[in-house]
Amino acid sequence: MPSRSEGLFNRAKKVTPGGVSSPVRFYEPYPFFAGSARGSKLASADHKTFIDYCMGYGALVLGHGYPAVMDAVRSQLENGTLFCVPSEKEVHLCEIVSKLVP
């Protein structure tokens, strides 16, 4: 019986070139598929645990599911997700970045 990751890979090959969305995500004989993550650990769809050394290539510097980040995201979701027009929070972020990078 194939593993869950193998089954997902077989499905992905039908709709994604090479079965992956990036060539660095392919491993022989098939890549493992993520199921969940918390902190520095990543669990596969097959319930195997790995240390996530990529951490979103830097975007997850605080780890998966960091409580303060999760709270901030939940709070923002109540106000909207993507506006495609300027917002006060955008201006505030730009002010912070401008102070840090003159």
Give a written overview of the molecule.
The protein is of the alpha+beta class and 102 residues long. The protein is 35% helix and 12% strand. It is built from three helices and three strands. The protein has helices spanning 4-15, 67-77, 88-100; strands at 34-38, 41-44, 49-51.
- Number of separate helices: 3
Strand content: 5-15%
Total beta strands = 3
Give the helices and strands as they follow along the chain: HEEEHH
Strand order of the largest sheet: 1-2-3
Mean pLDDT: 90
- Share of helix, binned: 25-40%
Radius of gyration: 18 Å
Comma- or semicolon-separated keywords:
3 helices, three-stranded antiparallel sheet, alpha+beta, 102 residues
What is this entry, summarized?
By secondary structure, the protein is an alpha+beta fold.
Annotate the secondary structure layout.
Elements: H1 4-15, E1 34-38, E2 41-44, E3 49-51, H2 67-77, H3 88-100
Antiparallel strand pairs: 1-2, 2-3
